[in-house]
Amino acid sequence: MNDFDRIEYSQLDDILSCEKDSSHPVLLTQEALDGTAAELVDCNRGIVAGALDRVDDTDAISQDALRSSYVDLYRAAVSEHGLAWYRTHVPRPARELALQGLRLMSAPEHLDLAVRAIESDLDDEAFAAAFASAEAELPLEEANAAYLRDLPAMSILKDADIPTAMSIEFTGSGASSDYPRASSGDRGAILLEVERLTRRDRAPHSLRSSEGVGRRKPRVTNAR
Fold first, then answer.
1. Domain-located, residue 153
2. Tens digits of per-residue pLDDT, 162-182?
3. CA distance linking residue 146 with residue 33, whole number of Å
4. Is residue 2, in this structure, part of any structural domain at all?
5. What are phi and psi of 57, to 5 degrees?
6. What ranges does the record give for the region Disordered, renumbered to this chain (predicted)?
7. pTM for this structure?
8. Whole-number Å distance between alpha carbons of 75 and 78
9. First and final CA of the chain: distance in angstroms?
């Protein structure tokens, strides 16, 4: 991990100073909204993946949709490979959006853990135990789905209308690889994206992250 990729503890105030995005609607289907938490999170993730392939700038996509998608990537990655892998392989823009998602979706145990991991540079074993405890308190997938259902700007579509809606809403040649994609339609899709990030040709990194301790404690507040 180079210095540009590292999230410093002292930067968290700025990263976590965020609000829900009402400037762009989140595109979802009624079937997904009526379905399980996993189905809803999966639907959003798939639409986000398609949007990222169509836009030049991620500002054209609902930031809440991106946050939800990258919280799901965080959940899958740390569960499958651990915190050190996540820090090493997932680009910083996606990690920042995941932190914002944890704050806005009212998952205090998970947010506190993510902040503590940056503050104290937790090793994988300690992080895994704390993550399991946070999951027992509130499964992150459930919090993610509740967040999506409560968003202020939403466009509910039929499955058949998604391609047309996306062609109208999103135009461009595709966002940068700093924004990973994981399609929907298969619960293994998010893990396939995790594995793709593993194989991506990057400069060698130490598996131990150096995301360090800053000098001042951020004001971490949970969304109401």
1. yes
2. 888 888 888 776 776 678 776
3. 10
4. no
5. -135, 130
6. 201-224
7. 0.80
8. 6
9. 34
